[in-house]
Amino acid sequence: MFSSFNISASGLTAQRLRLDVIANNLANAETTRTANGGPYRRQVPLFASREQGSFVEYLGSALGQPTAAGVRVVGLVYDRSPLRRVYQPGHPDADETGYVLYPNISVVAEMVDMISASRSYEANAAAFNAAKGMALQALELGRR
Questions:
Q1: How do 71-78 and 84-87 pair as beta strands?
Q2: pLDDT tens, 7-59?
Q3: Which residues contact 105 (CB under 8 A, 6 or more apart)?
Q4: Can you tell me the distance from the alpha carbon of 84 to that of 62, in angstroms, rounded to the nearest whole number?
Q5: Secondary structure of the chain in HEC code, one letter for each residue
């Protein structure tokens, strides 16, 4: 019964991280110089299914029954798409030809990702609340 809470909670955590990464990308959309040198590169979180952790989940997997354990964050990777080149000869970060390298961030794409992540967060919260309601109903049935 509590596995549904764990699944929804892992989804909430993953989508919160996704929203944090998107906010970081948007905040650095015009950053031309980082501590590592060069412009900021867009970051993207990688997710994977969470591995089984309990004996019941291992047993179900061994018996061929599908086990849902949620999602986990594998890590953050840098988007390797090309950086934007803008002609700005007076900019302090311009090269010898007058071009400045800007981050590979599309504000429109980040906003679409933000809407998707917030909708996913809402769906996980709704699933969590539905499971909580069912658990409360089960407890009420046990009292009668």
A1: unpaired
A2: 899 999 999 999 999 999 999 999 999 998 889 999 999 998 876 666 656 66
A3: 25, 26, 28, 29, 40, 42
A4: 50
A5: CCHHHHHHHHHHHHHHHHHHHHHHHHHCCCCCCCCCCCCCCCEEEEEEECCCCCHHHHHHHHCCCCCCCCEEEEEEEECCCCCEEEECCCCCCCCCCCEEEECCCCHHHHHHHHHHHHHHHHHHHHHHHHHHHHHHHHHHHHHC
